Amino acid sequence: MDASKPVVILVHGLWMNGLEMTWLRSRLRDRGYSVRQFQYHTTSQTLADKCRRLKQTILREHANVALVGHSLGGVLSLHTLRMFPELPVEKIVCLGSPLVDTAAGRSLHGVQPGRLVLGRLLPEAVFENPLRRWDQELPVGVIAGTQSFGPGQLVAKLKKPHDGTVAVVETQLPGITDHLQLPYSHTTMLFAQDVVDQCDAFLRTGQFSRD
Q: What fold is seen in the domain 7-205?
C-alpha cells in the first residue's frame, strides 16, 4: 500500500453491514489505499453514540484518514467531523447520501411500522439535527446517482433525477466542495468503476475529474 495516501475508512448505509462495499473496498486497495470498514448498527443508539464510535475508529489508525460513506454513512461521516472537527481526516466522499433530506425516509417515518424499521439514527441525523450547510474547510465531495431504480420510489414520490432511493437535490448540501452526478442507482454505484475512479480523483486532488 502507498504510505503517502490516507487510510480510507468505508462507512456503510442504512440496514447494511459493509458486505455490500466489498467490491469497492477491493478496487480502492488496487489503487494503493489501505482500506478499513466501519461497521455499526444502523437503527439503534443515538447519533452521538455513533459519532463517538466512528471517532474511536479513526483515532485507532494513528494516521491521516479519508472517509467514504454510502447513503446514511455519508451523513454519519459529516456529523462526526462536525462534532469532532479536530480529527485527522483529510477528505470525505459521500455516495448517494441524503445530506439535505430524504422523502423516502420521511414517508416511512410517517407511519408506526416505518418508524420501527428506520430506528433512531436516520431521523435524528437527517430530520431532527439537519446538517443544513457544510461550513468547514475539510473537503467534501458528493456523488449522486441518476438511475431511477430502487425501493425508495415505492414509498415516496421522489423528485427527479433520483437514484431510486435518494433524489439528487437531497444530496446537494450547501458548502460542499464538489458534486457529481453519475448514471447509477443507489446500490449499483457501489459496483461502478467510474465511481472508484472519481473517489480516487477526489481523494488525491480534492476535486472530481471531468476529463
A: Rossmann fold (3.40.50)
The rounded distance, in Å, linking the Cα atoms of 47 and 122 is 8
Cell numbers at 44, concatenated: 439503534
Find the length of the chain: 211
Q: What is the dihedral of CA 91, 28, 173, 57, to 10 degrees?
A: -60
Q: Report whether 70 contacts 96 (CB < 8 A).
A: yes
Taking only the tens place, the pLDDT of each residue in 173-193 is 999 999 999 999 999 999 999
Contacts of 19-24 with C-beta under 8 Å, sequence gap 24+, read 20/70, 20/187, 20/190, 21/70, 21/190, 23/190, 23/191, 24/68, 24/190, 24/191, 24/195, 24/196, 24/199
Decide if pLDDT at 64 tops 90.
Answer: yes
Q: Is the pLDDT of residue 154 over 70?
A: no
For cell 455519508, name the residue: 74
Residue 95, strand partner residues:
70, 143
Q: What pLDDT shows up at residue 71? A: 98
- The answer to whether the CB of 182 falls within 8 A of the CB of 192 is yes
What residue ranges do the domains of the chain occupy?
7-205
Mean pLDDT of 102-126: 89
Q: How are strands ordered across the β-sheet holding 178-182?
A: 35-38, 7-11, 65-70, 89-95, 140-145, 178-182
Q: What are phi and psi of 111, to 5 degrees?
A: -130, 150
